[in-house]
Amino acid sequence: MQIVVIDHDASVVHQLEKQLVSLGCIDIVTFTAPGAALGWVQQHGDHIGLVMCGLAMSDIDGIEMMRALKQIGYHGKQVIICQADEQLRQSVLQLAQFYDINLCGVLFKPIPLPQLRAVLQPRQGVLSEGAVRRVPPIFNELELRQSIQAGQFCCHYQPQISMQTGALTGLEAVMRWQHPAHGLMKPPEFLPAVERAGLASMLCEAVLADVLREMRMMGARMVPVALHVPPGATAELAFPRRVEQALQAAQIAPGMLSIMISDATVGTNHAVLLDVMARLRLRGVGVCIANAGGAVGWQNLPALPCSAVKLNQTLVQAAMISAERKAQLRACIAAAHSAGAVCIGAGVENRRVWALLRDLGCDVAQGYLIAKPMPGVDVAEWHHNWPHHAVWMNALHVATSGKPSGLPG
Q1: Parts of the chain with a pLDDT under 70
Q2: Pick from 142, 145, 175: which is nearest to 158 by CA?
Q3: In whole angstroms, what is the distance from residue 156 CA to residue 377 CA?
Q4: What is the distance between the alpha carbons of residues 14 and 9, in angstroms, rounded to a whole number?
């Protein structure tokens, strides 16, 4: 598993990295900017075993960082690094216990090597051997092509909920690969290989057919679905026509489908992407910009033919602890609305994030507080139970009475 080191003092980061290497750790990622570190952890959290963070940092201090890491869904181990102050150390330990944060310890600078080694011991759950990156499987074009043809790729679905009514407004379809040897794999584990092999369009076509088949199975319970597609699929001008043909073959109205495009894609081959987006909209298909407020700043949203924007999750989490980021988030939501787009709040992991987004005028919530991505066959049961879910019942109580119901956050 990976170790992430964060401190605004580059010399501290460098020294700690050298110590970790001397203990046999080779997968180490370092940051002097806490915001960038949060973005990295959010994207790669499943592969991170330990986050080591300075306490006295200028932009976001270590206590704020502990909370922010938990808010973005990181539940792995953490270590705080600080100057020698036993009273402060005890306060940090108590806060970690209060916030239910998996804190291994608070280490004083300069960190003695034996103390650092102790943090990496098996009894602490973070091995120095475990800090070696699990090398992703290498897939060649033939294997990928055969796996697509064999129907090994599918989608899991994460619900999107109206923040005003609590109703299910749609589902985001995220790709998965049910690999016979490696198990269920997420996009970062296979999409780079798919893109390199030039098979993004082939994969997208197969997955889209599967999504539309599952939508038809929903029958009267069908809700709009946003399919997150790889960049290579939208790099082809024929993409809108293929989507239209797939919808016609499945006999599903275009308005029931949206194509979700990451913000990183928007920055590449802009003319082709703008062409594709516009022609999808002409056909009645929705277009959602994911990670809005990140690479795609709020100022650029009105120029894009999108029907929805999914807010940058790192920006949402940072807005919980920074007035400046909160102002940016408010501007992004306002820009989306001025462009006539629905605003989707990503990373809703707790009620505090829900309340922040609701108060800023966000339309839709999505995140683990509501539900994790699930197979299509599980959506109906989740939907049946949702109206009685404690999350929504508490949110409704707060909205009507202005007082929390006392349910845990």
Answers
A1: 121-137, 264, 266-269, 293-302, 390-409
A2: 175
A3: 9
A4: 9
Structural domains of the chain, ranges and CATH numbers in brackets: 2-131 (3.40.50.2300), 141-401 (3.20.20.450)
Instruction: Write down the pTM of the prediction.
Output: 0.66
**3-class DSSP assignment, residue 286:** strand
* 382 neighbors 371 (Cβ within 8 angstroms): yes
Cα torsion at 376, 378, 383, 387 (round to 10°)?
Answer: -150
CA distance 360 to 344: 12
CA distance 325 to 312: 11
Exposure of 206 in the CB half-sphere (CA atoms within 13 A): 19
DSSP3 helix / strand / coil % (the chain, rounded to 5)? 50, 20, 30
Percent of the chain whose predicted confidence (pLDDT) is above 90? 38
Q: What is the distance, to the nearest Å, from the Cα of residue 358 to the centroid of all Cα atoms in its chain? A: 19
Q: Of 5, 9, 4, whose CA–CA distance to 83 is shortest?
A: 9
Taken in order 81, 130, 156, 295, the sign of the CA dihedral is positive
For residues 29 and 53, give the distance between their C-alpha atoms in angstroms, rounded to a whole number. 12
Residue 403: per-residue pLDDT: 46
pLDDT per residue over 52-93, tens digit each? 999 888 778 888 888 888 888 888 889 999 887 777 778 788
For the record, the structure tokens of 2 come out as: 């990976």
pLDDT in tens, 124-180: 334 333 333 344 567 899 999 999 999 999 999 999 999 988 899 999 999 999 999
Say if strands 168-179 and 153-162 run parallel, antiparallel, or are unpaired: antiparallel
Q: What are the φ/ψ torsions at residue 342 (nearest 5 degrees)?
A: -75, 140
State both tokens at 242.
């293929």
Evaluate whether 357 touches 365 at the Cβ level (below 8 Å).
Answer: yes
DSSP-derived pairing of the beta strands 364-365 and 374-375: unpaired
The string of DSSP codes covering 108-154 is ESSPPHHHHHHHTSGGGT--TGGGS--PPPP--HHHHHHHHHTT-EE
Cβ neighbours, 10 Å, residue 406: 7
Distance of CA 303 to the CA centre of its chain: 25
- Amino acid present at 178: Q
